[in-house]
UniProtKB/TrEMBL annotation, chains A, B:
This is Asparagine--tRNA ligase. Keywords: Aminoacyl-tRNA synthetase, ATP-binding, Cytoplasm, Ligase, Nucleotide-binding, Protein biosynthesis. Gene3D superfamilies: Bira Bifunctional Protein, Domain 2, Nucleic acid-binding proteins. It is found in: Cytoplasm.
């Protein structure tokens, strides 16, 4: 008979009452006496298990009773409602087939394991409750992002991963090469001869798709990227990975206010969509990972995000009487402690801080009239701090070129970026959302390594 | 007043009849006399332009009349139906603002440009009709793929881009490193000291997410990847790029027949979704790029895909009397000419060829009983040839290990992949779809460089 998935049984239980169904999945637990036994079966389609009841009249009762955890089986049986039990229904097995016996040294036994240990078995950890929940939410949140932008007519752009442009942050980039490292070709000065490399020049892994994204915004008006980005930062923190995914929308005919509006709408959309489509997973996180999670997310969804200028924010911090590790004064880059104070203690809701000093922000951000600040806006959320960084882009060719000169950037490297300002410049804006950042926020997981299927960090490229 | 996008005017024209609307966009053409003029305006939200009629009573009539192509403007005006004209409506301008004057040397003038030339201005080509259509279809097709899998409960997995595993095809991989190429650290034997590299070992860009994907399929049952993959192949063809996007679904409790069913359903879903959601673009492709396109796609959507074993396919080719450049006999890898003969001349519809000789297929494909073939299936489509390659995976640990030994693969490198076969193995299958391959098929574009926003090929990493 045709198989069915556990999710469907949970979603349409009544339809299947008293029916024969066929399930396949992996054994999470087995308990058995001489007469009957119970198996908690999970097939990956749903967070919850199904309870299978089996009796000793089964031909293979003995083997079934002793199944090692994580063995795969198929079950044919009758669905019976169990209104007096914790679970809403169970399956009375009529026939059970062992598909694949697990070995008794299966590393994910029922006891609790540390997250650190689970990272060493990244190929098996999605079979645990925690990571089953995390990675299903990752998938659902990714889809929510596509859905949000597609429904608003944004065009999805795959900006390049390998880049020949020596953009900002070059020192922290990964080199991509096909040169034989044992035998690097050099020119007469003894310098690497990059003309011999695959692309005929030095290439790196991208740190941002924004500059490429702008070219598409100036054709399609509203676009977004969603792809992997890379930082070769040698930092071993719970918040940094060498490989992570970013979402970078870019909108023509949109100023900083429009930018903040889209960012706010997007964050609320993602949270709502995940709460609606992964209620079991979210309940699990609230119960076992982060008790304040649901309250915090509900609060975010129902708040109107605050907006405060950097200058005002600094004044608030200076006057608040709080002792910070990093002293506050106008011109500093806000640290996580400052960001969290503002959003958690002072405003008690998500806030955009806008108009940052130009010296701590990137060259492409639009200069304000005051000569000191740029039209940048970061979104700070309670519990995390910065989650989104955005800005209006400098669309005025002369102002942009002057700023690049000031910073010593080589304008020839950016010829195509500058040409956008020659052929139909418009006010335009965009922002970047670190996908793992919002996943940590959604799940309460506190280490970025635990929201990435196979994390890459300094010294770690396993699997 | 609040702006509106052109797409909305086309989709709900009647609602706006006689209304004042505000549009912003880029000028595609201007024609003007002393008394009045016409502008074709495009705002990127829609394939088609809007005709703006403006008269000499406008304050800035003279400047507007002489606007260089690609200048950006904002227009306030009344929408009037024009039942006797080619276009369904036009905007009678009441007020026009020049946002950004384009320069007169704008490279995309109205005359037709070669695709080769347009590649050199990849930052501007999305403003042309052809690339506006191509890249909107790219976005819509990408979304169709997510929608197809998410609606079926598949979990989206981001498999790693940087990989430390020295998997198949290692010779054609890009090296990723933070070592200083001018000063490579070497050990006492004079060999690169990879322990000094960022990850403490040699790492490359991924060629496939499949092996990682399998680990998730054995937890979530049905999963898919959709991400960039890389080949450092030094081949300069119209079908190969160094960086491209792949979709790799993987399904537990699914055999080769299930695999083919999902692949067929997916291809039909993508085509239907794009035809429904990009009708203007598809009409453009049929008119200007590939006259047989719509007929071919409709035929695919309405055919039941054929299924033929490799052995039967070879017999057909041997008996057909066709002269092939590459002679046919059992054991060869089918060439594009063979694939196209089968699907275009013989079957006249898409076909799966299954059960290929094991010696031309990968180590992980499931061995058939005959000892000579593996449970692999490729989908061939008219006009292109192979578009999907899939297989049932070898789930039997001993058979898999024996095959790896036979091929001289180092089993330790695959320890986690092999462990999947120890802890609850199941029948499972998957396939890979090259995203650009299907885009070429959908649009009729014949060079892969023209369906990738910023293509990376041998010697080319511009933008």
């Amino acid at each position: 008979m045709e198989g069915i998935v556990i999710k469907q049984l949970y979603r349409e239980t009544e339809k299947f009452e008293g029916q024969m169904v066929k399930l396949s999945g992996w054994v999470r637990t087995v308990r058995a006496s001489n007469a009957f036994g119970f198996i908690e079966l999970n097939d990956g389609s749903f967070f919850k298990n199904v309870q299978v009841v089996f009796e000793s009249d089964l031909e293979n009762y003995k083997e079934i009773s002793k199944l090692p955890i994580s063995s795969s089986i198929s079950v044919e049986g009758i669905l019976e409602l169990t209104p007096d039990s914790k679970q809403p229904f169970e399956i009375k097995a009529k026939n059970m087939i062992i598909e694949g016996l697990s070995q008794s040294d299966y590393p994910l036994q029922k006891k609790r394991h540390s997250l650190e240990y689970l990272r060493t078995i990244a190929h098996l950890r999605p079979r645990s409750n925690t990571f089953s929940a995390v990675f299903r939410v990752r998938s659902i949140a990714a889809y929510a992002i596509h859905k949000f932008f597609q429904e608003r007519g944004f065009v999805y752009v795959h900006t390049p991963i390998i880049t020949g442009s020596d953009a900002e942050g070059a020192g922290e980039m990964f080199r991509v090469t096909t040169l034989d490292l044992n035998n690097i070709p050099k020119d007469e000065k003894g310098v690497v001869d990059t003309s011999k490399d695959f692309f005929g020049k030095a290439t790196n892994l991208t740190v941002s798709g924004q500059l490429n994204g702008e070219t598409f915004a100036l054709a399609f008006r509203d676009i977004y990227t969603f792809g992997p980005t890379f930082r070769a930062e040698n930092s071993n923190t719970a918040r940094h990975a060498a490989e992570f995914w970013m979402i970078e929308p870019e909108m023509a005919f949109a100023d900083l206010n429009d930018d903040m509006e889209v960012a706010e709408a997007m964050v609320k959309y993602i949270i709502n969509y995940v709460m609606e489509n992964a209620p079991e997973e979210m309940e699990f996180f609230s119960k076992f990972i982060d008790a304040g999670l649901m309250e915090r997310l509900n609060h975010v969804v129902n708040s109107e995000f605050g907006r405060v200028s950097y200058t005002e924010a600094v004044e608030i911090l200076e006057k608040c009487g709080e002792k910070f590790e990093y002293p506050v004064k106008w011109g500093i880059d806000l640290q996580t402690e400052h960001e969290r104070y503002l959003t958690e203690q002072h405003f008690k809701k998500p806030i955009f801080v806008y108009n940052y000093p130009k010296d701590i922000k990137a060259f492409y951000m639009r200069a304000n009239e005051d000569g000191k600040t740029v039209a940048a806006a970061d979104l700070l959320v309670p519990g995390v701090g910065e989650i989104i960084g955005g800005s209006q882009r400098e669309e005025r060719l002369k102002v942009l070129e002057a700023r690049m000169d000031e910073l010593g950037l080589n304008k020839e490297d950016y010829w195509w970026y500058l040409e956008l300002r020659k052929y139909g410049e418009t006010v335009h804006s965009g922002f970047g959302l670190g996908f793992e950042r919002i996943l940590m926020y959604l799940t309460g997981m506190s280490n970025i390594r635990d929201v990435i299927p196979f994390p890459r960090t300094t010294g770690t490229s396993e699997f």
